[in-house]
Design brief:
By secondary structure, this protein is of the alpha+beta class. It has helices spanning about 15-30, 70-80; strands spanning about 1-10, 35-50, 55-65, 85-90. Strands 2-3-1-4 form a 4-stranded antiparallel β-sheet, covered by helices on one side.
Amino acid sequence: MNKYELAVVVNAKIEDEERAAVVDKCKALIERFGGTITNVDEQGKKRLAYEIQKMREGFYYFIQFDAESSAPAEIESRMRIMDNVLRYLCVRQDEE
């Protein structure tokens, strides 16, 4: 099992319930591919470095999880087609 972090930028123009549903969907994807969520860090609304889909702000979430090495590719392929997800990035965390 490796440690990973999934960074997700969610559309800021949607309702709170809808935003929570998007994050829950991300968590469900991780668990579906054998991952174990260790921490969810909500950073809140922040200004984007550049405009994405005519939006200047997004909600940032960082989800830490443990999973097998094949899981991130599967998760990213599903994240690519999710509505209301502006950007995402899954990176492996170094062992400290």
